Structure formats: C-alpha cells, structure tokens
Amino acid sequence: MTTDTALITVDLVDLDLPAADRATVVRALAQRLVAAGRVTDLDQFLADIEAREAQMPTGLEGGIGIPHCRSAAVTAPTLGFGRSAAGVDFGAEDGPADLVFLIAAPAGGGDEHMTVLAALARRLMRKNFKDTLRSATDPAEAADFIAKEVSA
Amino acid sequence: MKIVAVTACPTGIAHTYMAAEALEVAAEEAGHTITVETQGSAGSTPLTESQLAEADAAIFAADVEVRDKERFAHLPLVAVGVKKAISGAPGLITQAEEAAANAPARAAAPASATSGGPAAPAGAKAPAGPGVASRVRAWLMTGVSFVIPFVAAGGLLIALGFALGGYQINLPDDAPLYEEILSGSFDAGSLTAWGALAFGIGSAAFSFLVPVLAGYIAYAMADRPALVPGFVGGAIAVTTGAGFLGGLVAGFVAGGLVMWIKTWRVPRALAGIMPVVVIPLLSSAVVGLLMYVVVGRPIAAATEGLTNWLNGLSGTNAVLLGLLLGLMMCFDMGGPVNKAAYTFAVAGLTTPSPTALTIMAAVMAAGMVPPLAMALATVVRGSLFTEVERENGRAAWLLGASFISEGAIPFAAADPFRVIPSIMAGGAVTGALSMAFGTTLRAPHGGLFVVPLMGNPLGFLAAVVIGTLVATALVLALKSFGRRRSADDVAGSVGDAPTEAAPTATTTAASTTAATTAASTTASTTASTTASTTASTTAGATA
C-alpha cells in the first residue's frame, strides 16, 4: 500500500481536538482530509456526514464517535482520527466520545478497497485497539498503529 | 450450537462490520460457532447451503432489509437493529439460544435448505396479541416508504409541466403525447410541448403509485411471493377507479392471503415451486377476482350514484355545495369520491355558466389543501412524523400548490384515521369559503399556476390558506392525542433508512422484542412463544 492510498497518515490525526460540539470537531477533521486531497468538496462532504448522522447518531458506548458517510466528494477510503480530552457528544447513551473516527468512503460501492474500512470497523470493537489509541503520545504513533492493524 | 447471522446498516461501511465482530466475539465466548454474513459495501460472502442447513438459530442485526431472507425460513430467528448487536451482542446470543430451545423439533427443517431448490419461505406470522397494531403500521409504512419517491418524482414532473405549459397541457381532446413525439410533430421550440412531455412522464410515474403501495404492503407482510398479487391488485384498483384506499385493501388482502397459503402443507415436489409459481399464480387470481368483483363493482356503482346525486344538487345553496365538494375532494385523493367531485366540476366547464366556474374554483381550492396541510404539519411539529414523512412533506408544498392532491397519499395511507378526517374538514372549509367568496376559474387543473386566470384570486388564496390551517391544526391535534400510543413508533423510526423498508425492521424490533424475542415483520420465520404454533406449521409446510 502506497502512502497515497493508505487509510490514514500522520496528517490525518489530531490528538488534541478542540473541546467543542460535534459539528466543529467533524469539520476540523474533515479539513485535514481536504488538505490531504482525500476530500474534494468540504461542504458536500460535511452535508453527507450530517445526513448520515441525522438518520441515527453514530456515537457508540465506550466513548467512541464514528461520523461516516459515502460521498461523491471522497476520492479514496480514508480515516481521520481525533482525540478529545473533554469529550464530544455523538449521541451515545453513555455520554460523550473521546475517540473520534471520521470514516470517509467514496460513493461507488463494492470496491475492494472498502475492505480496509471493514477491517477498521471490526478493530473498533476491540478493547486493546481503543486502549492503544487512548495512550498514544504522538500522531505518527497513532497513524502507524492503525495502519498496521487494518492491513494485518 | 451453530448460529448464522446477517448484519447490515444504511451506509454499509461501519456498523455492519462492528456488529459482525461483536457477534463473533460473543458467540465464541459463549462456546458457540457463528458465521456472519456482512451485507455491507465491502461485498459479502454468502452463507453456504451447509452452514444454513446445520444452523440452530439465526440472528438479523440490521437497519435495512436483509437480502434473500427466505434462506432463513427454517430457522428460529432473533431480529434486531444493528446497534443492538454492537452494544449487547452477548444478550442476543442468549436470545438465540432460547429461540433455538423453544423451537419445535425441527428434524424436517434442514431438508428445506438442502433440497436444492429455493426453500419454501414459510412464515405466516400469527398476528400475536400486543404486536398487531405496530405490525400493521410497520407493513403500511413499508408500502408508504416505497411510494414516496414515486409521488415526489411524478408530482414534481407534473408540476413542472404546468409551470412550463400552463393548464393547456392536459386538455382531454389533445392527441396522445406519444403520437405527437413518434410522428415527429413534437415542437421542440414550444414550452407547452415540453410541459406536456413533463406532464406525460410524471403521469407515468403516478400510475405506479397505487400498485407500488399495494405491492410493498403485501411484500412486507409475506415477502417476495406476495409482491405479484399486491401489484396486480393495486393495478386493478387503478383500473376500477378504487384509488389508494382500494390499493390498501389490495395490499392487505394479498399479504394476508399469501401468509395463509404459506402455511399449507404441500408435497415436497411442489414445495420448490411454491414461491415462484404456485403462490403468485393462485394469490393473483384470487386477489384479482376480489378486486374486480367484490371491490370494483360497488365502487363503480357508488361513483355513478355520487355523480347523479351531485348533478341533482343544482340549485342547492352554493356554500353548502362547496362544503360537500371539499369533503369529497379530500376523502380519497384520486379515488372514486374525489373523482366524482372533480369530474362533476370539469363537466360543468363545457357549458360555462357562472355557477360552473365557481364550482371549478372550489374543487381546485379544496384539492390543494391535503398536501399543503401535510407539508405545513411536518414543519410545525416534525416530531410527530417519521423522517421519510418529513422528506415527503418538503415535496408536498409544491404538489399542493400545483393541485396534485396525491401528494398527501403517503400521509393518509400511513395514518388514515387521523389524517383523512383532518384534511376533509380543511377541504370543506376551503370549498365553502371559495364559493362564499365567489371565486371563479375556467381551467381544470394547474393550482397556483392558473391563479392569474381566476376571478377573485385573493378570495381563492384566502380560502386555500384558511382551509390548510384548519386541516393542519386538526391533524396535529389528533396525532398529539394519539401520541402516547405511537411513542414507540416514533422512537423506532429514528433509525429509518431514508429510502426503503428499514422502518419495518426497526420499528417492530423496538416494540416487540420484549414480548416476543424474535419477530421481524417481514422475516420469514418466527420462533417466539407466541408464534410457536406457526413455527410448527412452518416445519410441516417445508417437510
């Protein structure tokens, strides 16, 4: 896997998200995706994320938020990862999320590249995956860890 | 114990796989074997015949319709929303254990999965006590959710037609549009011609409205074999002029009939062709006959009676006549009663007397009320409506403004006893006021687009606005009144997928899990205590 198409790179990690609401946090991460050339149209992408969020909040028990969508504005399956010390409300029953995974998928479905997102989703259910990300000290460490996990 | 499971979510990139992971971990911890089919965007590996045959129970964790669920017909089933598997997978495994334990001896069951042909999707669901109302509602909502795109696309095209071509695009003496296009006399430089084209396409979409409603109600009740009788019955409702109320009847009759046929014990040789040949054939014949003879004939007679009665009313107090016509216009949106009133008004235009022109105005004004009132209601109190209804509400503004009463059908079909009386009252007020204001109109269609042609257009608009407010207030009051009961539905609908049958699965799962461990509305089998009798007949049917 080349750096161009890697699910996540160090630029897509923000270990110190602003203590703010969901929209602000998602926008902050999405801007990283735009800067990395993974998202072509920020507004379109944010609208698609919101549309998915409106169907059912993406917060999960255990302090996780997984805003995600399939969008025509996305060029390759991409993950933006952020950590918020204060937590951000993603609508989970047990409170705000401190780990935010912004999952961006291109509009065309069924692509074999999508398996990387499936692998990521499965990792999200594992405690040691989350623990490692909670204790990561710098963005490169977090990005490397995720990249290694999903390609395993 | 061996378990098979399907996970699916609207986007298909996250929850599907998280649920799969959670189920796999939980099953392993409980000492079971599980195979999960992830119906997501990364492609899914279908469960094999032998995995299906050897399984003791099935779990559906899905917010969208599970694909090919007939494959699970022989298994005790636990059906929930996808998030339930993520947050409570161990509980689901326990439920699957119980479902398997409660299932009747299923020596015969694997036979159906290994017989080669498609297993007869047996699965009549005994309408069990507490769940009936929410089930009926879930069936209805499935039908309605499939209809909405047709209403929006068709209605907006028709509205576009009027905007481009004015009301002239739909005069009865015109040559059929396709003849014009085929013979090359279609005038590409004429807005009217483009308007007529948009109108023609929109009307084609509209002609599916009642068949799709009936077909997918039946589908929700009894799966794919019920699609045919549902569609056929719905099409006959169109032919006989029975309208969407006739379509509702067709859908429920078709669904119920197929549910029942599926409980028959049939020879094994026949079982394979039951879902593809026997059931569609038999049920279509029966539903078609019923729709023509039992429903169609009385409706034709009633339409004629209404028309004669209206013709005999000449000389009645004008305001009273407006009130009556308003009631009729809003009763069945395109059905026989509506059509009688509308035809009465249009027939008057051929001998234009001042009275005939006021009648036309009153009828159009009243016919605009239902979609407008529903659109307003979704804006004022969105929480009383499902997400799909709110979306439909946005299109309904334009539909109402264009005098396309059908825009309210999704609302009326989903909740007839609250919606229909409300819009009838609003329509009656509008009809009476339009007559009282002496508004006149010589165009048979067009809504707001023909306001410039009217006599006393302000009176017309005032009548429409007041009636819309009345209808909106009433429908909100009635819906709030019944709120306690429908609280479940609203909670369940949070997970609605925008485009299709998700409300079914989610709503039912949310409201019936407690009582019956496993009852998915459209699922092919149930294995709850309440349905154990059904389950045994199920096994019999596939033996």
From TrEMBL, chain A:
Source organism of the structure: Actinomycetospora cinnamomea
Subcellular location: Cytoplasm
Chief location category: cytoplasm
Keywords attached to this entry: Phosphoprotein, Phosphotransferase system, Sugar transport, Transferase, Transport
SUPFAM superfamilies in UniProt: Phoshotransferase/anion transport protein
GO molecular function, one term: protein-N(PI)-phosphohistidine-sugar phosphotransferase activity
GO biological process: phosphoenolpyruvate-dependent sugar phosphotransferase system
Protein name: PTS system D-fructose-specific IIA component (F1P-forming) (Frc family)
InterPro entries (alphabetical): PTrfase/Anion_transptr, PTS_EIIA_type-2_dom, PTS_IIA_fruc, PTS_SugarTrans_NitroReg
PANTHER family linked to this entry: PTS SYSTEM FRUCTOSE-LIKE EIIA COMPONENT, PTS SYSTEM FRUCTOSE-LIKE EIIA COMPONENT-RELATED
NCBIfam families recorded: fruA
Sequence ranges assigned to domain PTS EIIA type-2 in this UniProt record: 6-149
This protein's GO CC annotations: cytoplasm; membrane
UniProtKB/TrEMBL annotation, chain B:
Molecular functions per Gene Ontology: carbohydrate:proton symporter activity; kinase activity; protein-N(PI)-phosphohistidine-fructose phosphotransferase system transporter activity; protein-phosphocysteine-sugar phosphotransferase activity
GO BP: phosphoenolpyruvate-dependent sugar phosphotransferase system
Biased composition (Low complexity): 497-543
Domain PTS EIIB type-2: 1-98
InterPro entries membership: Bacterial_PTS_Sugar_Transport, PTS_EIIB-like_sf, PTS_EIIB_2, PTS_EIIB_2/3, PTS_EIIC_2, PTS_IIB_fruc, PTS_IIC_fruc
Spans traversing the lipid bilayer: 144-169, 193-219, 231-261, 273-295, 316-335, 355-380, 419-438, 458-478
Principal localisation: membrane
Protein name: PTS system D-fructose-specific IIB component (F1P-forming) (Frc family) /PTS system D-fructose-specific IIC component (F1P-forming) (Frc family)
Stretches for region Disordered: 488-543
Species: Actinomycetospora cinnamomea
